């Protein structure tokens, strides 16, 4: 058995009645504290047109977080490549790697990270909305870092300053591509739990050794909210479920308070939707979270777990990661 490292995915949640600036300051506070607690990496994710999330510009946030910390790896979970020219991403993350060598992760996704109208505003063209050019865009991006295919354009910074590149996914496409390219793979179990095991199987089945990896390396992202009791953790989880429900119904809003989430007049269909959303996640006391994360590890044989907690109050969010580091992490192991 081997110990499994834990990492953090933070979406810089904007709580109702607060500002994006406050959300980003809270994310910085969390990055510093999770570094002290020994977490492996701290990622932020690209989202657009979502009032509850302040991480719309990952390279900017990563630069700030990397400067505010000293040892934890900092990166994107992820940058949605079809929204950007590969050269721009190479220059941005080449700059980050040049400034903070050996600490930057570039997690790449192919989804828009938003609705189709906003994606069109980002890309300014209908071309690429299907993400069918993603494999070529990814190849171009990697080449800007490595310079293996000489061309008329040199990314500077970029060439020679390559961060650790990951592929992210919530289905089988990126899993297969990550395997074929020999890249590490991170799966979004936190919002696509029914696809987790099939995608990981595809990744491992298609894996080919590369200059970056000799063996598959799979990370699983999971919602994890820990409190002193199961009841308190469920109370803290209420706003995240309501936020996702409103997002999926086309009514995105800042993150509600736990009191507002508890008082919301759910229909039975909506209540079942939020229950399904939390299926297979980790919510509860340290003992409960340890049991749930251990079960996830047994199912997935993940090499690493990335924990995310959309919690209204920053003190409760920090406390959740403290409880997991102090009472859960040491007991999380998987087979060789």
From TrEMBL:
What CDD domains does the annotation carry? Flavin_utilizing_monoxygenases
Residues in coiled coil: none
GO terms for MF = oxidoreductase activity, acting on paired donors, with incorporation or reduction of molecular oxygen
User: Where would I find the Luciferase-like domain in this sequence?
Assistant: 7-303
The GO cellular component terms are: cytosol
Residue ranges of the TM segments: none
Which Pfam families does this UniProt record tie to the protein? Bac_luciferase
* SUPFAM superfamilies in the record: Bacterial luciferase-like
The family annotation for this protein states: To bacterial alkanal monooxygenase alpha and beta chains.
**The protein's name:** Luciferase family oxidoreductase group 1
Q: Look up and give the organism this protein is from.
A: Micromonospora pisi
């Amino acid at each position: 058995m081997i110990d499994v490292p834990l990492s953090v995915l933070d979406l810089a949640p904007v709580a109702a009645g607060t500002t994006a600036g406050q959300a980003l300051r809270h994310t910085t506070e969390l990055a510093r504290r999770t570094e002290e607690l020994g977490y492996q990496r701290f990622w932020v994710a690209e989202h657009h047109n979502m009032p509850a999330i302040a991480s719309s510009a990952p390279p900017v946030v990563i630069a700030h977080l990397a400067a505010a910390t000293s040892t934890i790896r900092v990166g994107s979970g992820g940058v949605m490549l079809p929204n950007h020219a590969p050269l721009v991403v190479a220059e941005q993350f080449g700059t980050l790697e040049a400034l903070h060598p050996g600490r930057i992760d570039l997690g790449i996704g192919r989804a828009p990270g938003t609705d189709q109208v906003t994606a069109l505003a980002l890309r300014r063209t209908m071309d690429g909305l299907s993400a069918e050019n993603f494999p070529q865009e990814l190849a171009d991006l990697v080449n800007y870092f490595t310079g293996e295919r000489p061309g008329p354009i040199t990314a500077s910074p970029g060439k020679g300053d390559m961060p650790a590149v990951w592929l992210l996914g919530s289905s089988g496409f990126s899993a297969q591509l990550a395997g074929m390219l020999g890249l590490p793979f991170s799966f979004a179990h936190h919002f696509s739990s029914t696809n987790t095991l099939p995608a990981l199987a595809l990744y491992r089945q298609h894996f080919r050794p590369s200059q970056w990896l000799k063996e598959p390396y799979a990370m699983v992202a999971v919602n994890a909210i820990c409190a002193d009791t199961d009841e308190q953790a469920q109370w803290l989880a209420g706003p995240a479920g309501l936020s996702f429900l409103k997002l999926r119904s086309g009514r995105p809003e800042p993150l509600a308070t736990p009191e507002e989430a508890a008082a919301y007049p759910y229909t039975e269909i909506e209540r079942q939707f939020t229950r399904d959303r939390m299926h297979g996640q980790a919510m509860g006391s340290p003992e409960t979270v340890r049991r749930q994360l251990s079960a996830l590890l047994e199912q997935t044989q993940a090499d690493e777990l990335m924990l995310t907690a959309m919690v209204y109050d920053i003190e409760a969010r920090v406390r959740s990661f403290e409880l997991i580091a102090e009472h859960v992490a040491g007991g999380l192991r998987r087979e060789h």
